[in-house]
Design goal:
about 1200 residues; single chain; transmembrane helix; Ig_V-set; Ig_I-set; eight-stranded mixed sheet; glycoprotein
């Protein structure tokens, strides 16, 4: 942060007292300040030192000559002297000046020469000031209690005296306090006092009587000093409440029409808080509902608008409405509300009345109806009369009046049509009104009647209902009947009331029969005899009227009892049965459907008079009833009993075939026959009756009741048992006991007997099983001959073939139509089976193949032994050992599938040894191993010679290491620009690093001589060239359990853990194989000729050796193949093809190859085979399922073996897999 430096020069006093000047400086606390000291080099010359003193204590020493700048005392770490040799303006900078820095400072300059007019002593009086720390406002309430640090006061009513106190402290000097209302300065008393801590503070008191002018005021107390270019202030907002200043009403200017909506506005202004409004009605002193809204003005007062809306009527004419306004200020001061009023003028339509309410006259008489009204204005402009809502046409000869001057109506010569309700309608300038009441005029005449029947619809006789007949007046006056005559089918049935009447006038006799309503006639418990047409005629005081129209009384009754018939009379199961329900009296209305019941259960899908059952079943053996149904209900039913019979029929007949095991302890056959009435069952053997007392058989008979679930009637079950204890030997004879057995029933009354026959056969499990050939030999890859399996059994046996507990074929014949591999050697079993048991026989298929070998080197009893192990079938093999195409005889011991060659330490040379084996099938591919030294030799050397030899070897090793290091350093410098970058991901190892370079140099092939180039002619002694120094070899790249990559030398000894290993690959020198299957290989050594064969070479399978070995095994591989030019990848993965060996394995999966680059000049376009031999227990990478085809699988007894063909495209490359 930049340092702010303030130099405040208030007064400069330059004295004339010798070489001394005086100056006053004012500084703000917390700011940086410069105390000036004039150093005049141009006039006074160079100086020795500048010393600063505060009062009498030195605080700073500066010397430009001595390069000295030293603050002292309280100015340590916060002062420095600013000196400029080209200017006389210098000074002492004091950082963050404080109140303790106040005082008199002296600047003493020691010049090298004493000259006139040079100020050697300059004094500065430093005064510090500070701005006020705070400004607060307190409010003093009426009780003398002071509320501190207020920001607002109120609400307070106008006229209230307010006392505010402003305090400010922390400033030097004390600030001046002032009160402001915006730009207006207020009064206030200013004083000084001391707070509780003893600090001096400024105090200002403001006393104000609040008025409307203080509305919305915000008072400010400002603290100011003479050096401040700004002020520190505190604010307080004043909330002043004032009474309303005015109230006014805005309403209608003139008369209003009745029914209109009148809006009156009462406006109250200048109130704070907003005024409350009250509306009064001077007539009944009722407070009227209204709606108020408030709006705040710019002066913080409220304008209240009270809306009074009312729908006026004639009662509001001349009514005075008053609006009263008040607020809390007026209530607190006990002031009366301010008010204003308005008077309503209402014009309304006429209010009309007619008299009298009721007028009764006889026809041809006159009658008068009066019409009076009240209205504003009173003048009428139209008069109308209405009868029953229809306008009376006036003027007319039958009417008088009904005008504006005489609104009453006179009706002349009344008729029955003048009966009705009359209303008067009057109209003035406001509107039209109709009389609220009416005058009802009755003109009397004889009645016209009609007959009504209750209930109106037909009735049911079984319910024995009551019928009410009513004779009602259609027209006539008066409307009450005093007498009624009742008629049935035109004949007088009864006249009511039954008392003596005078024809000319009613003379009521004091009898009970006269005190009834003659217009109603009750018919009780009516039946079908009450049916007929009823009518009536009535009498009033105007006389008898005409007879009414006839009404028919309809009575419904249920049908009569039917007669139920069945056909045929004898009911047989599975036949047709027709039932008929005959009803003579169908009832009223006639029956429309029939109901059928079976054992009391309604048959829903039959509603006609006939019911046909087809076919008849057991469930139809029941009580059947029927009855007819109409709207009056069901009739009486008729019932019959149905008994179902059945002719003999099999429920369970004999099967066409029945078999039994020849030594079965229990054998039986059964049949079941349905027959009602019941029948009997007898048995026959080959047409001969089996008697009940036969010792060879036992007949069991059971009678079974009907079964509704199976729809079976009464049935008989008969079971024929074989008494095996009475049969010869207690068993059946497979030839003589095969017979036909027949179950026959007798007939019954409804049918003839039935018969069923089964063929009985004695059964036995498979036996005497044979196979066409018990031993089969086949060359690996060949297809064996068909095998046939046969056995005797009844029922006939079914066959299936198994190998190693797995089914490989079904049927009598085994045909393996695929090339056989060695793992298919074994017993093939044929199993014949039926439901009584099984039998089996086996044939052994032996798959023959030529030997396959592997060599290991071991040190046994101080001797080096080469062990050649083979796998072969047949196992009778012969071994041949070679060294450089020379057959070895001495030191060879062969036994079974193993041959051991013991090296003579003094005679046997070092180099490549090979072994091959031969059996009746063929000769194996030779196996080879490099022998580089024999440990047994060392044991024959004396102790002294041993020490000498060890010393020589150590010295030689040291020299070799030194030479290698020198060569490596020189080559590294020369070839650093040509080296390719090495991979760093996916577990690849940087062989260019020192650690891995030393590891590489320790590999067994490193440093070995370059093989000679191939000559033009075939040389039997040359090897195929290798891109690695030691020939066809590689190092092992293995991923351990931690996910890291480890490498082992090919010469590394086997670990206890079964780790994956690369086996070094050696191509043996050409050997004359007398029995080589491919004759072309004898003379073929040119690489291009091999390519023309278009046949991939097959390296020998590798045998996993899990025991500890002193050296790794070297395996034989075929001649290398030159990769064609069109192959773009540097490394081509070639899965092993196995047409010759047909080895099978389901677990082998090759590793994906990795690429390495190493600077080592070699011949370009070379090819090498890499053999990856993985242990069974080593987890290999997973490849797609397409790699795991039949031709990619290997024998599970062998290590999973895969090969990579590696092409070196240029010089200086190493490829690792």
């Amino acid at each position: 942060m930049d340092t702010r430096i303030i130099i405040l020069l208030t007064t400069i006093l330059i004295g004339s007292f010798g070489d001394t000047t005086h100056e006053n400086i004012v500084g703000l606390e917390g700011d940086d300040i410069i105390l000036p000291c004039r150093v005049d080099i141009s006039n006074c010359g160079d100086f020795h030192t500048v010393k600063w003193y505060k009062e009498s204590k030195r605080v700073f020493v500066f010397s430009d000559l001595a390069n000295l700048m030293k603050p002292e005392g309280p100015l340590i770490d916060r002062s420095e002297f600013q000196f400029n040799a080209s200017s006389s303006h210098s000074g002492l900078l004091i950082k963050a000046v404080s109140r303790n820095d106040e005082g008199l400072y002296r600047c003493e300059i020691t010049y090298l020469e004493v000259r006139d007019n040079c100020d050697v002593v300059q004094s500065i009086n430093l005064t510090t000031i500070s701005f006020p720390d705070y400004v607060t406002i307190s409010y003093e309430e009426e009780e003398g209690y002071e509320v501190e640090n207020v920001t607002s006061i109120g609400p307070l009513s106008e006229g209230t005296a307010v006392s505010l106190i402003c305090r400010s402290g922390g400033g030097r000097p004390l600030p001046a306090l002032g009160w402001w209302n915006g730009t207006k300065r207020l009064g206030g008393d200013l004083s000084a006092t001391v707070d509780q801590r003893g600090n001096e503070i400024a105090v200002s008191r403001l006393e104000v009587a609040l008025s409307r002018d203080d509305l919305g005021a915000e008072w400010e107390c400002r603290a100011e000093t003479q050096l401040m270019d700004f002020s520190v202030s505190a604010h307080v907002k004043v909330d002043v409440h004032v009474r309303p200043v005015s109230v006014s009403i805005e309403g209608p200017d003139g008369p209003v029409i009745e029914g209109s909506l009148v809006n009156i506005l009462c406006l109250i202004k200048g109130a704070r808080p907003a005024a409350t409004v009250r509306w009064e009605n001077n007539t009944d002193d009722v407070v009227m509902p209204h709606q108020d809204s408030e709006y705040q003005s710019t002066d913080k007062t409220y304008e209240t608008r009270s809306h009074l809306s009312l729908k006026v009527n004639k009662e509001d004419n001349g009514r005075v409405l008053t609006c009263e306004a008040t607020n809390q200020v007026m209530l607190d001061k006990g002031e009366a509300p301010i008010k204003t009023s308005v008077t309503l003028q209402v014009h309304y339509a006429p209010t009309v009345h007619v008299t009298p309410d009721n007028i009764t006259v006889n026809e041809s008489m006159d009658f008068l109806i009066f019409c009076s009204h009240d209205s504003n204005p009173l003048t009428l402009i139209d008069v109308n009369w209405y009868k029953d809502g229809e306008k009376v046409q006036i003027p007319s000869d039958r009417y008088e009046g009904g005008t504006e001057d005489q609104p009453s109506l006179l009706v002349k010569k009344a008729t029955r049509h003048d009966t009705g309700s009359y209303k008067c309608q009057l109209t003035n300038s406001v509107g039209t009104s109709e009389s609220e009441d009416e005058a009802f005029v009755t003109v009397q005449y004889p009645p016209d009647v009609e007959l009504k029947m209750e209930p109106t619809e037909a009735v049911i006789e079984a319910e024995r209902p009551n019928i009410t007949l009513t004779c009602e007046i259609i027209s006539g006056e008066p409307s009450m009947l005093v007498g009624v005559r009742w008629y049935l089918d035109g004949d007088l049935l009864k006249e009511l009331p039954e008392c003596n009447l005078n024809d000319t006038s009613y003379v009521y006799v004091d009898e009970d029969f006269c005190d009834i309503d003659p217009s109603k006639l009750l018919l009780e418990n009516v039946g079908r005899s009450f049916q007929g047409n009823y009518s009536c005629e009535g009498m009033t005081s105007a006389g008898w009227g005409p007879r009414s129209e006839e009404e028919e009384l309809v009575i419904h009754y249920s049908p009569g009892k039917p007669t139920l018939l069945s056909f045929p009379p004898v009911v047989v199961k599975d036949s047709d049965l027709t039932l008929t329900c005959i009803v003579e009296d169908l009832g009223r209305p006639p029956a429309f459907q029939y109901q059928w019941l079976q054992n009391g259960h309604l048959i829903h899908d039959i509603s006609s008079a006939n019911w046909t059952i087809s076919p008849v079943t057991l469930k139809n053996e029941a009580n059947i009833s029927c009855y007819a149904v109409n709207l009056a209900g069901p009739g009486e039913p008729d019932v019959i009993e149905i008994d179902v019979l059945a002719p003999p029929a099999f429920i369970d007949r004999l099967p066409p075939y029945q078999g039994a095991l020849l030594n079965s302890s229990e054998t039986s056959v059964s049949c079941r026959v349905e027959c009602a009435p019941m029948c009997e069952i007898i048995w026959f053997k080959d047409g001969v009756l089996i008697e009940d007392d036969s010792p060879l058989y036992q007949i069991e008979t059971r009678f079974l009741p009907p079964d509704p679930q199976s729809n079976d009637l009464d049935s008989i079950l008969s079971i024929l048992h074989w008494n095996m204890t009475h049969w010869p030997g207690g068993r059946l004879d497979r030839f003589h006991d095969n017979s036909n057995y027949t179950c026959t029933s007798t007939g019954n009354s409804v049918g003839q007997g039935v018969s069923s026959t089964t063929h009985f056969r004695v059964e036995y499990p498979p036996e005497n099983i044979t196979i066409s050939k018990y031993h089969v030999e086949i060359l690996e890859g060949g297809i064996p001959e068909k095998l046939r399996c046969q056995a005797k059994a009844y029922p006939e046996a079914t066959y299936f073939w198994t190998f190693q507990n797995e089914t490989v074929a079904t049927g009598e014949i085994l045909f393996l139509d695929y090339p056989m591999s060695r793992d298919r050697t074994g017993d093939y079993s044929c199993i014949a089976q039926n439901r009584h048991g099984n039998a089996s026989v086996s044939s052994f298929i032996n798959v023959l193949f030529k030997p396959e070998c592997a060599i290991t080197q071991r040190e046994i009893e101080s001797q080096t032994r080469l062990i050649c192990d083979v796998t072969a079938n047949p196992r009778d093999v012969s071994f041949t050992w070679l060294f450089q195409n020379t057959t070895l005889h001495e030191g060879v011991t062969s036994r079974g599938l193993q041959s051991v060659f013991t090296l003579d330490h003094g005679v046997s040379p070092l180099g490549t040894y090979s072994c091959y084996a031969k059996n009746d099938i063929g000769t194996s591919i030779p196996c080879e191993i490099d022998v580089t030294g024999m440990s047994g030799l060392m044991e024959k050397i004396s102790d002294e010679n041993t020490l000498i030899l060890i010393a020589i070897v150590v010295a030689a090793v040291i020299m070799v290491v030194l030479v290698i290091l020198m060569i490596f350093c020189i080559c590294a410098k020369r070839n650093s620009s040509d080296k390719l970058p090495l991979g760093t991901g996916n577990g690849n190892v940087d062989v260019g690093s020192a650690e891995h370079r030393s590891f590489y140099e320790n590999l067994p092939f490193h440093g070995m001589a370059q093989p000679p180039n191939k000559s033009e002619e075939c040389a039997s002694s040359s090897r195929p060239p290798s891109q690695l120094s030691s020939g066809y070899g590689s190092t092992l790249s293995n991923f351990d359990s931690r996910g890291t990559t480890s490498f082992w030398s090919l010469r590394q000894k086997a670990k206890k853990k079964d780790l994956a290993k690369f086996r070094s690959l050696r191509v043996s020198k050409p050997i004359d194989f007398a029995e080589t299957p491919n004759e072309e290989a004898k003379s073929m050594c040119d690489l291009d000729q091999i390519i023309e064969l278009n046949e991939a070479p097959v390296p020998a399978p590798r045998i996993s050796t899990l025991k500890r070995q002193k050296t790794n095994a070297y395996q034989n591989i075929p001649l290398p193949v030159k990769i064609k030019a069109e192959l773009s990848p540097e490394i081509q993965y070639i899965p092993q093809q196995t047409p010759q060996s047909n080895l099978i394995s389901s677990t082998s999966t090759p590793f994906i190859p990795y690429t390495r680059v190493y600077q080592n000049p070699q011949r370009a376009d070379s090819v090498v085979y890499a053999d990856l031999a993985m242990s069974k227990r080593t987890q290999v990478a997973t490849l797609p399922a397409s790699y795991m085809t039949t031709q990619h699988r290997f024998d599970p007894r062998l290590d999973p073996t895969q090969y990579a063909v590696i092409r070196f495209p240029g010089m200086g490359h190493e490829v690792q897999v």
